[in-house]
Task: structure prediction
Amino acid sequence: MDEQLTTRQVADALNVSESSVKRWCDQGAIPTIRTVGGHRRISSDAFRQFVEKTKRGGPGMGEPNAPPTSTSLATVEELSLEFEKSILEGNEAACSGVLVKAYAESRAFATLADELIAPTFRRLGEMWTCGDIEIFQERRGCEICQRALHHLLRTLPAESAFAPMAVGGTPAGDHYSLSNQLTELVLRESDWGTRNLGSNLPLRTIAAAALKFGAKLVWLSVSHLEDEQRFVDEFAQFRQQLPPHTPIVLGGRALHDQLRPKLQYTAHCDNLQQLTAFSRALRQNQWSAN
Result:
């Protein structure tokens, strides 16, 4: 009879988190059955097929704690697993190594952000909500990731003296700085000069900085709002502070469908690949106009 494995047994065999295995089960990547009590069970045959299909080269089930025999990180899924593991362990060197390898393969910060970093931190948020990890692991992971991204930023060519300037940050009450840093990287890669003002800033001071630096684009990354109506009111004043035709680009999970119609902006980007397309088109238009 085919042996039935628990998600913990599979996680140990693959040297990944149990949450990752549960996610694969729920996504249908690993065929799963449910016990009367609702627990996931995976047949040994289904597990072998998953290993063969994903080319993990994992150890045998008799060696649940042995490390994987394959060091290949050829797929996005494998990169994601390695990145998540390094973040949870607080392994800065491993985290940096995965990001460098992923960027070398994609050659685009937007792809790196949308397909590796953002999904990983969404999973970490879900794991924290479910009590699978401590909040310090997610916060520590953000710090580690930001330091690694800062290293990658230094590999980009220096800003051109002729590059148009983009200025941005996060509004008051929003301390989430990782998405802000990724926005800066994407814009720099698209030949913009950037001034990342940081997080938790009054909108009026972001507008003042935009005027000071002669910004041709202003971005706001909005992951958290303490008071939506207050933000709407302050955003209207913020818009008036800027020159009339200054492009304003918004992004972030706090800007839901009911809130955005109350704001006057140029573009809203659901992901950073959209920001890349918008910023490059805008850059081209400005170049042509000059």
Q: What stands out?
A: The longest helix spans residues 109-129. The first strand starts at residue 4 and ends at 5.
